[in-house]
Amino acid sequence: MKIFVSGKGGSGKSTVSALLGMEFAKRGREVLVVDNDESNYGIHTHLGLDLPKDFMYYFGGKKDLFDRTEDIKDGMETENLPDEYLSKEGNLGLLAIGKIKEYGEGCACPMNVLSGEFLKSLSLHDEEILIVDMDAGIEHFGRKVEDGADIVLLVIDPTRESIKLSEKITEFAHNIDKSVYFVLNKVDEETETIIYESVDENKVIGVIPEDERIFKASLNGKPLDFQLGSVEEIVDSLVEVEEKVLRPFKS
Ligand SMILES: Nc1ncnc2c1ncn2[C@@H]1O[C@H](COP(=O)(O)OP(=O)(O)O)[C@@H](O)[C@H]1O
Ligand SMILES: [Mg+2]
């Protein structure tokens, strides 16, 4: 199952991706988290893993990426991913597409082309979970990167921008032709109620309250390795979607 985690900057994409990844791994699933945000570095810390080498260098680095699109389209299987680009502990792995590192180095387009094709053509085993921590906002929807997803998870924090983004994604949903779900994040009782007034509640797959442990672990650069009932419930629901929607004919 391929899960793409989207949302506005700061909504909690990396946090949610890491928490889901660790919970799936705890349940014995083979998990690959892909850091697809060219601007942020945090997710390896959330997962308690080392920062892997940028995967774009496997394809020759940023300037050669456009020429290699056909190779990338050929597809890969997770077991053939080169070890030197993977950071791994047990059944939890992390791959980072690439980061902007220098002032004036140009746009992130080559990395985005790589990630779009790579994520679409990567083949998973039946029990494997791919969790993609997407770049902020909506640009990747314009490039149809979500074609590679089974499930699009939109993280909604208590801001008007997030609500607006959810409206936009709902509008896209029938074109995306994917299961689109919302995770309300960093909410309390009051803000949760306000969000529910504005978003399609049938799409809400889970709610993660504002939690000081998350915030402090992040601030201190510590892994998010504590148990959260809210995250367990989201993983239960995702497994249900996997069983009922994504492979209903499997015996
Ligand atoms: N449920 C939560 N409770 C408290 N703080 C949170 C929660 N989710 C995310 N945060 C904090 O919000 C900030 C942004 O989260 P992050 O996952 O980096 O967002 P994004 O990846 O969408 O930019 C971080 O400081 C993170 O610790
Ligand atoms: Mg992030």
Automatic annotation (TrEMBL):
It holds the Pfam family CbiA. GO terms for cellular component: cytoplasmic side of plasma membrane; cytosol. Residues 3-38, 117-224 form the CobQ/CobB/MinD/ParA nucleotide binding domain. The keyword Nucleotide-binding applies. InterPro entries: CobQ/CobB/MinD/ParA_Nub-bd_dom, CooC, P-loop_NTPase, ParA/MinD_ATPase. One of its GO terms (biological process) is negative regulation of cell division. It comes from the Archaea. This is ATP-binding protein. It comes from candidate division MSBL1 archaeon SCGC-AAA259I07. The lineage of its organism: Archaea, Methanobacteriati, Methanobacteriota, candidate division MSBL1.
